[in-house]
Amino acid sequence: MSKNSLPSSPILYVLSGAGLSAESGLATFRSEDGIWSSHALERVCNFNTFRQNRDEVFAFYNGRKVEVDRVGPHAGHTRLAAWQARWGAQRVRLLTQNVDDLLERAGATDVVHLHGDLESLLCTACNFRWRIGKARLDPKAPCPRCESLEDVKPVVVFFHESAPDYEHLIAMAEHIRPRDFLVVVGTSATVVRPWEFLPDWRVSHDHNIQINPHPEVPECYGHNIALPASIGIEMAEALIAEAMSK
Length: 246
What we know:
Layout: E1 12-16, H1 18-22, H2 41-44, H3 54-69, H4 75-87, E2 92-96, H5 102-105, E3 111-113, E4 116-123, E5 128-131, E6 152-156, H6 167-175, E7 181-185, H7 194-197, E8 208-211, E9 223-225, H8 229-244
Parallel strand pairs: 1-2, 1-7, 2-3, 7-8, 8-9
Antiparallel strand pairs: 4-5, 4-6
């Protein structure tokens, strides 16, 4: 989308991380007691070695699917979905680093999963991607297009693998305007650091809002809401609603 085709009204970009889903009961990956503290990251999330560890890789992500299915969206997910329903998907861009489907289950209709999802498989030989939904990730399922088996992996972005949906972050950085809002929810900013892809003039902007019980690099935001996502998102609505409703 070019700048000339952007809606004249403000656009709301929401970038969410593991802290959003943690409130639903999903373990984060990078916290002190997170998933990577008890699993060998290099064995189950490494693009260079997944072919040698496919059974372990598929078992690990099937475990994540079971965990996601056991929980549900909370009030924060629901409010974000309601924003998209209220102001439209063209004006409310939901970008998440999470691979779960809690935003969709809350009613969101358009979500960019920057790091992939648990409901699809990818053949790295021919770049074919297909959805399996709630079904188990099957390590014995060949690619429907080229029939390769060992090159098939979950559509979760591994370390040393490109992340094609980062193009949405690049587009945001190119198109964001002073009247647009950026709400960053529940991210440690370890992998995606907003201040690294935003234009210089946007850092510390009043329309930058961070929601995190322990705000990261607070000087990059005009507002820091040091609360859990479910409460913080409700508070953020008071900061954006009037402008978004114009």
